[in-house]
């Protein structure tokens, strides 16, 4: 009797074990409905456009997909859905405007997944005439999957959002801390015995001081040649953050702490020397901050054995501790109006423009001269590139 009871208990445990194995097998089976969805890692697709640029367009391919092989042919249609911009704004905390529908073109909108497959043909969504948009606004065009046949649609992955923002005039700059550029002029005649010169630069300086004991002197070099023509910031007994012009007629202007530049802010600096009029003028953000008429003579940027530099003067310890962009050398005196109206961009074919270094390459050590004069420059050390958006909103 005891043996019979033991056998019954053993059979019971065996039944439990078999049931357990069956349950595990069942867990490995697919017990969910196959669904259709838009095959995308991120539902938000960002684009930039440049207002006024000729024929600005963009495009993106979209695909439909299923988790499992389709049991039958599956189709879906991609359509523009501007009414869902409010959904985008709610999800992502934006204040975007609907992209005008005539700027969204889907010529062949139907995507098909064949039976036994898991991914559709591509459907190209194109965006045209973006240059007519307002660069101060953000636009969104949602694209939704509709008219699905052969399968159910996963609601959480049926809409893609295409976001359009105005491109900045300047998107990348060079950090030239502990670095400099020798300038070896390809067009020597343009910089020999000039009767006038204007130097412009857009800079953002972190520190005008000696910088962790590495930068040995509180001087920051923008451009020029020691002893001949030099645009720098700071000097011995002079505010370390004030722009100074050094030429054979003496240093200009006198020290004035009220004219000091801020740290960690973008500032446009322009320095003029006109040897025919004697004018020496310094502008900050388009405003004249100093002027005299005591600079007769002519300027040459060929230099001696040390040459001409961006970011270096006399020695390697007078670098510019920060970012630089839009360095321009002119062989004419630029007017205040001309300077103030073109902080972020000028026409490379402008009369009198000798060299134009935008510092927007974003990689490598070579910075291109955007004029036809061929004065490309190469950094002494590897460059650090910094992403920016200039002009900043509201400027």
Features:
Immunoglobulin-like, mainly beta, 28 strands, 395 residues, single chain, disordered N terminus, 10% helix, 6-stranded mixed beta sheet, Jelly Rolls, 3 helices
Task: Map the helices and strands.
Elements: H1 2-28, E1 35-38, E2 44-49, E3 58-62, E4 64-66, E5 74-80, H2 85-92, E6 97-98, E7 104-105, E8 110-113, E9 123-127, E10 138-149, E11 152-153, E12 159-166, E13 170-175, E14 181-183, E15 196-205, E16 220-225, E17 229-235, E18 238-247, E19 250-252, E20 266-274, E21 279-284, E22 287-292, E23 308-310, E24 322-330, H3 336-340, E25 353-357, E26 366-367, E27 377-378, E28 384-390
Parallel strand pairs: 1-11, 2-12, 6-10
Antiparallel strand pairs: 1-4, 3-9, 5-8, 5-10, 7-9, 10-12, 13-24, 13-28, 14-23, 15-20, 15-24, 16-17, 16-23, 17-18, 18-19, 20-21, 21-22, 24-25, 26-27
Beta strands, count: 28
Which term fits the overall shape? Answer: elongated
Number of helices: 3
Uncertain runs are: 1-31
Structural class: mainly beta
CATH topology of the largest domain: Jelly Rolls
CATH class of the largest domain: Mainly Beta
- Report, as a whole number of angstroms, the end-to-end distance: 97 Å
Mean pLDDT, nearest integer?
A: 88
Q: Helix fraction?
A: 10-25%
Largest sheet: 8 strands, antiparallel
Could you say how many structural domains there are in total?
Answer: 2
Over the alpha carbons, how many angstroms does the gyration radius reach? 33 Å
The name of the CATH architecture of the largest domain is Sandwich
The share of residues in extended strands comes to 35-45%
């Amino acid at each position: 009797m005891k043996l019979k009871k033991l056998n019954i208990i053993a059979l019971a445990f065996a039944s439990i074990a078999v049931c357990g194995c069956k349950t595990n097998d069942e867990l490995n089976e697919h017990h969910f409905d196959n669904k259709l969805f838009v095959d995308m890692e991120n539902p938000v697709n960002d684009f930039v456009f440049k207002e006024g640029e000729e024929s600005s367009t963009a495009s993106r391919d979209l695909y439909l997909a299923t988790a499992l092989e389709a049991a039958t042919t599956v189709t879906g249609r991609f359509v523009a859905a501007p009414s869902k911009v409010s959904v985008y704004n709610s999800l992502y905390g934006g204040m975007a405007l609907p992209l005008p529908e005539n700027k969204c073109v889907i010529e062949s909108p139907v995507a098909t997944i064949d039976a036994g497959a898991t991914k559709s043909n591509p459907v190209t969504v194109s965006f045209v005439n973006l240059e007519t948009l307002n660069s101060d606004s953000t636009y969104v065009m949602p694209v939704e999957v509709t008219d699905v046949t052969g399968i159910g649609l996963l609601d959480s992955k049926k809409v893609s959002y295409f976001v359009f923002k105005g491109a900045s005039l300047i998107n990348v700059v060079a950090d030239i801390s502990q670095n400099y550029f020798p300038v070896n002029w390809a067009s020597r005649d343009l910089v020999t015995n000039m009767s006038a010169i204007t130097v412009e630069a857009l800079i953002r300086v972190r520190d005008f001081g000696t910088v962790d004991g590495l930068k040995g002197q509180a001087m920051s070099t923008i451009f020029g040649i020691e002893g001949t023509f030099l645009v720098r910031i700071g000097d011995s007994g002079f505010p370390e953050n004030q722009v100074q012009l050094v030429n054979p007629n003496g240093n200009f202007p006198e020290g004035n702490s009220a004219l000091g530049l801020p740290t960690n802010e973008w500032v446009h600096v322009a320095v003029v020397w006109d040897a025919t009029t004697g004018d020496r003028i310094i502008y900050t953000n388009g405003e004249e901050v100093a002027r005299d008429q005591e600079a007769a003579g002519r300027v040459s940027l060929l230099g001696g054995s040390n040459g001409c530099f961006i970011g270096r003067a006399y020695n390697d310890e007078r670098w510019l501790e920060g970012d630089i962009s839009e360095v321009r050398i002119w062989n004419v005196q630029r007017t205040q109006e001309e300077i103030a109206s073109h902080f972020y961009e000028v026409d490379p074919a402008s009369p009198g423009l000798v060299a134009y270094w935008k510092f927007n390459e974003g990689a490598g050590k070579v910075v291109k001269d955007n004029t036809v004069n061929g004065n490309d420059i190469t950094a002494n050390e590897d460059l650090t590139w910094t992403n920016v958006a200039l002009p900043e909103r509201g400027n």
